[in-house]
Amino acid sequence: MVKVAVVGSYGAGLTMRLPRSPAAGETVSGGVFASGPGGKGSNQAIGAARLDARVSLLTAVGDDDFGRAARALWREEGVAADHVLTAEAPTMVGFILVEPSGENRISIAPGALDELDAAAVESFRAEIAAADILVVSMEIPEVAVAAALRAGRDAGTTTLLNPAPARPLPDDLWPLIDVITPNQTEAPVLLGLQEGHGLNDEELTRRLCALTGGAAVLTRGGEGALVAQAGVTTRIPPHPARSVVDTTGAGDSFTAALAVTFAEGRPLTEAAHIAGVAGAHTVTIAGVIPALPTRDQLNALIGTER
């Protein structure tokens, strides 16, 4: 059983499904509301645990109902949360608008996550050192992202950065990343490129790979993914989804499956293919947590391809 350490976010997701997203100043009625757990770090941790990894999570929550619900969820899903910080500020909340096509728009109030700092990461160093792979996402302060990646490099643990939401990275962080996993929108932001930069997906992926010195996996939604490593770029074909109900958790499902299968020793291209199958499964189910596949579900989906 592989060990995965996750440093990232937790938040409560407040979701409204609407006939269409409102324009500025407009009210659109006919919505259906639901709330539930979210945050990229927590989603990725639960996704990895469902794929039979031993998972430790570092994030921050408030001393409130959302925070207590989070701790209950992690216990239920088998995610070790001993090092999760209880902050002064309230638990992060995300407001999510979902259109009938499954496309979504998200706004976030970070709250407790703003208190996740280098000292919190220091308390998590032993978990990072014991892990086969460290997964870091960027809904947390940059100081925590940097501290986590440095701790991973110091320990010799494979580091995977899911750079969402994207922002340009300091030059000194790039060499600390073994695998970076942006989508098509995030890649140009990471590279500091302006709109109309003129680079295609393969060129973007190669540039990202060169900066890390490791590998880059560019996710492309319905077009699959690109993997660049050691001077070679490989196209990963898409796994068609039966239907698209909700795209909200697809990236987190992809990241979790990529991390677990890569840590198990599979080639990165094979891991990216399996991760694409996991992401395609996730978009067919409403809500993030119900949509994250178990190992049995993922194996069954992979089996149907043969």
TrEMBL record:
It holds the Pfam family PfkB. It is found in: Cytoplasm. ATP binds at residues 183, 219-224, 251-252. Belongs to the carbohydrate kinase PfkB family. Ribokinase subfamily. The active site is at residue 252. Catalyzes the phosphorylation of ribose at O-5 in a reaction requiring ATP and magnesium. The resulting D-ribose-5-phosphate can then be used either for sythesis of nucleotides, histidine, and tryptophan, or as a component of the pentose phosphate pathway. Its cofactor is Mg(2+). It comes from Streptomyces incanus. It is an enzyme of class 2 (transferase). Activated by a monovalent cation that binds near, but not in, the active site. The most likely occupant of the site in vivo is potassium. Ion binding induces a conformational change that may alter substrate affinity. Residues 4-294 form the Carbohydrate kinase PfkB domain. The gene is rbsK. It catalyses: D-ribose + ATP = D-ribose 5-phosphate + ADP + H(+). This is Ribokinase. Keywords: ATP-binding, Carbohydrate metabolism, Cytoplasm, Kinase, Magnesium, Metal-binding, Nucleotide-binding, Potassium, Transferase. HAMAP family: Ribokinase (MF_01987). K(+) binds at residues 246, 248, 282, 285, 287. It comes from the Bacteria. Its EC number is 2.7.1.15. PANTHER family: RIBOKINASE, SUGAR KINASE. Pathway: Carbohydrate metabolism; D-ribose degradation; D-ribose 5-phosphate from beta-D-ribopyranose: step 2/2. One of its GO terms (molecular function) is ribokinase activity. Requires a divalent cation, most likely magnesium in vivo, as an electrophilic catalyst to aid phosphoryl group transfer. It is the chelate of the metal and the nucleotide that is the actual substrate. Homodimer.
